[in-house]
Automatic annotation (TrEMBL):
It comes from the Bacteria. ATP binds at residues 100, 147, 152-158, 182-185, 190, 213, 268-269. Keywords: ATP-binding, Ligase, Nucleotide-binding, Purine biosynthesis. This is N5-carboxyaminoimidazole ribonucleotide synthase. Pathway: Purine metabolism; IMP biosynthesis via de novo pathway; 5-amino-1-(5-phospho-D-ribosyl)imidazole-4-carboxylate from 5-amino-1-(5-phospho-D-ribosyl)imidazole (N5-CAIR route): step 1/2. The gene is purK. Homodimer. It holds the Pfam family PurK_C. It is an enzyme of class 6 (ligase). Residues 108-298 form the ATP-grasp domain. Catalyzes the ATP-dependent conversion of 5-aminoimidazole ribonucleotide (AIR) and HCO(3)(-) to N5-carboxyaminoimidazole ribonucleotide (N5-CAIR). Belongs to the PurK/PurT family. It catalyses: 5-amino-1-(5-phospho-beta-D-ribosyl)imidazole + hydrogencarbonate + ATP = 5-carboxyamino-1-(5-phospho-D-ribosyl)imidazole + ADP + phosphate + 2 H(+).
Length: 387
């Protein structure tokens, strides 16, 4: 058998494992936690830290190609793996996406080609950065958001600020780690673009997805996006293509954009892997984002990105397991959700639901977007999710 490897044992790894196995591969997962969604599905589980040299050697010896599902694996580990196996995306590409300042600088360097810029921002690495730039901050960056430069996700490591004092206390609250202050922009809506590039340099771009976040966490993804004009879709498509080519990337890459009230497009961040907003591709596209990752890393031709059905994806967070009044923990009524037209349920095999934890998602496809949205609304009524 031919083996593929994945760094990280979360749900993205699990869905990658399923796609790779469906194509005839065996999959090894390197993940420090013994009990993880991907490890249960994998053919081999290396229980080790992401920087464990012996485990990395073993993974690279066993697998022809290795990818990552977790964007914070040490870039040095990917570089080590690359001595013996194909690694996609590369350590260099992953490290750009791990650091918001490096990422924004890359977006600025790429702007001439991509046509998009990141939000106005400033590095805050020390208290002096606030004092020295007080006038600039007050004039151009407030109200804003303080984000940790590294390791944030689902809105964690972010504080909204209105005044200079807020900036100081937000920075103080981050335990001295470097932060970036970003101007708060008037978002009309948010979109993400999934792109993939093969080892042969061929690039493909999936249809633009419109995302709604709640409390910093992705709530729904709708494709085609009800607010996405053809011009906007074209600009986002072209920007994604320019970015993935400039990176010389191999694999699946997701790029998040803001559409402002005036219609302009701003690039927010990128994820060097399949992405939550791309889960709709499993049920609605010719090639899922996970099958595409397999193709890219294995040096195969990329698959068709065409969408065959309009789709809406709803994230299923741990909150759904808890009764708000009694706090009792019960399994939601999946049988009723699955009875809705066009529903496909994906649960990640996590057996300890916690509030805000991503437990699964459900995708509704139909021949029209309106029908898919009808099923979404019915599911929200069943699951008692306010719309
Ligand atoms: P993810 O889970 O997507 O990786 P994250 O923690 O890295 O999230 P961001 O994507 O940067 O954080 O921000 C989370 C959300 O906060 C965005 O999707 C958007 O809704 C809002 N947001 C972030 N930056 C800005 C901004 N500059 N102006 C307005 N809203 C913003
Ligand atoms: Mg992020
Ligand atoms: Mg984001």
């Amino acid at each position: 058998a031919t083996w593929l490897g994945v760094m990280g044992g979360g749900q993205l790894g699990r869905m990658f494992v399923h796609a790779a196995q469906a194509m005839g591969y065996k999959v090894a997962v390197l993940e420090p936690v013994a009990d993880s969604p991907a490890a249960h599905a994998a053919d081999h589980h290396l229980v080790a830290r992401y920087d464990d040299a012996a485990a990395l050697q073993e993974l690279a010896a066993q697998c022809v190609a290795v990818t990552t599902e977790f964007e914070n694996v040490p870039a040095a580990s990917l570089a080590l793996l690359a001595q013996r196996a194909t690694v996609a995306p590369s350590a260099a590409n992953v490290s750009v996406a791990q650091d918001r300042m490096v990422e924004k600088k890359f977006f600025i360097d790429c702007a001439e080609r991509s046509g998009v810029l990141p939000a106005p921002h400033l590095l805050i690495a020390a208290d002096q950065d606030i004092a020295i730039n007080a006038d600039l901050i007050a004039a151009t960056l407030l109200p804003g958001i303080v984000k940790t430069v590294r390791l944030g996700y689902d809105g964690k490591g972010q504080v909204r600020v209105r005044t200079l004092e807020d900036v100081s206390s937000a920075f103080a609250g981050m335990q001295g780690v470097p932060c970036v202050l970003e101007k708060m922009l008037p978002l009309a809506y948010e979109v993400s673009v999934l792109a993939a590039r093969g080892a042969d340099g061929t690039s493909v771009v999936y249809p633009i997805a419109e995302n709604v976040h709640r409390d910093g966490i992705l709530f729904t993804t709708t494709v085609p996006g009800p607010h996405v004009s053809p011009e906007c879709a074209l600009r986002a498509h072209d920007a994604a293509l320019a970015i993935i080519e400039q990176l010389g990337y191999v694999g699946v890459l997701c790029i998040e954009f803001f559409i402002l009230d005036d219609g302009s497009l701003v690039v927010n961040e990128m994820a060097p892997r399949p992405h939550n907003s791309g889960h709709y591709t499993i049920d609605a596209c010719m090639t899922s984002q996970f099958a595409q990752q397999v193709r890219a890393m294995a040096g195969l031709a990329l698959g068709d990105v065409r969408q065959h059905s309009p789709a809406v994806m709803l994230n299923l967070l741990g909150d759904l397991w808890f009764d708000t009044a009694s706090g009792a923990c019960t399994e939601p009524a999946w049988d009723r959700v699955l009875a809705l037209p066009g529903a496909t349920l994906h649960l990640y095999g996590k057996d300890d639901p916690r509030p805000s934890r991503k437990m699964g998602h459900v995708t509704f496809v139909a021949s029209t977007l309106a029908e898919a949205q009808d099923s979404l609304h019915a599911a929200c009524a069943i699951l008692r999710i306010a719309l």
